[in-house]
Amino acid sequence: MSLNQPFPMSLSNKTEQVYQNIHVVNLNGNGLCLCHQEESNNTLIRISIYLLHLKQRIRYSIPLHSIDGGFLSIQITRVLFDCIGNLLMIYIPGNFLQFIDCSSDHDPCFGLTLHYDLSSPIKEASSHDSSDILSTRTRPLPNKISTSIIPYYLTNHKDKNKPDQYLFDYQHGILYRFQFERESILKLFNKDSISKYSLEPGTEIRAMHLTNIHVNDSEIMVRILASVCNETSLISSDLLKEYLLGSTYKILRDNKLDNQYLQILPVTSIEALDSTSKPRLKDLELAAITTQIPANIAPTKKEDPNKKRLKSFQVTKPDILQRETTLATFPGFLKNFFSDFKSEDTTIRKSSGSESTLSPQKQVAPTSKIALASNISLDGYEENPLGDIQSYSANLADYFLQISQKESKEKLTEWANSYKNVQINVVNTLYAHLRKNIINNDSHETVSIRSHPKRSQLFRVMEKLYTAIEELSCPFPKDFFSHFTILGFYCLTRTVFLQKHAHSAIERMLDEEDN
């Protein structure tokens, strides 16, 4: 159990029974998880995670083919279960690290999963206040953490003011302090690291989601964009979609939008647990918990289609009409649309340097009013010739009206326009970052494109950006189509360019006829 004492680790020559390893993890008030390490075999450790607040169970095996010591090491290895913000963390030092996004406001999904060690080398310092090792052992100290560890708290684990978190290595009698190092995320956007560690497909998308939503570090995000622009083969339309979804959601959250409304807005392109592929998680099982759970842990709620998150920015007429039939089961969904913001901030707060604590965060007093309305300015956009931006805003306002019992249609229309402005600003920011980092040009000048040595790389990235924006039904960046056409003219053969141009013109004509 995760107690304040290394119990039941008594001084004994007898090997501990690691399958008795059970942790109860509180996700900073956003959920409660019961985690159990089961018995192991020659190459795997089996674990069960009970998401009590969601009444779901996850069960799978962690592969440990390359662990030092082989089977004998697996028999004494303890899996560490803890949390970072509202993310559940599963950790085996030097071998496995995984985050599961299982907050109570959305469907759970697997976050970043690594089968190798990103930890920095163990450091020593002269003071207990800044050291990574607290020990009375005589030197030499081990050069890495053993896999016989448990969480350890110098104070009550419910004390959210405590900035540090510790691991107790009961095999060597050493207490370690550990922190989340933001710089390590950048290693996941390096082509050499991807090749060296055989990262799973989608690791970079999960890393971007972690940075954007949970770490909430704009500086690291800018450096990630710069890194992938140096190696454009790392850029995919899915990665750009993750940036657009996460950045838009983050702005709305930072502007103190009511948490009930945030629950239906798109936040990530990562699939939920029951639909995503898990190639390296063995024997995965997902099941509902049928045992009765106290209401204060898993409150009984009626399933409502309106609570499902949107998958893109677009709201269509069929969406609105579909929700009219379920309106009676969801009264007051936006009742507190402009009321006090009461949800807890579960992002990883910045600290000195590039590190941040993994311990529970101190709650921040709620602000008085939502600041989201007409104060979000519009930088500019280029209307998609195949779409209708005004109709898009009107549909969004109608969608709000179906589930709001407090605000007038005029107020909701104003907010829908602000929401659209947020998306446009995010798209323009991404477009500017891509141009600046690929061709070293942060303006919209096109004169030098013809002879620029990286124009082909920029064109391929713009194709992926076009795909991402189309799939999300998002407004296009300012002057995007004219710049994209010029790039295509210089990067494509004349035959291919004319074919694409003709295809675009036909689509545009058909769309005009439909309207």
From TrEMBL:
Domain Gamma-secretase-activating protein C-terminal positions: 427-499
BP-aspect Gene Ontology terms: positive regulation of amyloid-beta formation
InterPro entries to which the protein is assigned, alphabetical: GSAP_C_dom, GSAP_fam
Cellular component aspect of the GO annotation: trans-Golgi network
Name recorded for this polypeptide: Gamma-secretase-activating protein C-terminal domain-containing protein
Upper lineage: Eukaryota, Amoebozoa, Evosea, Eumycetozoa, Dictyostelia
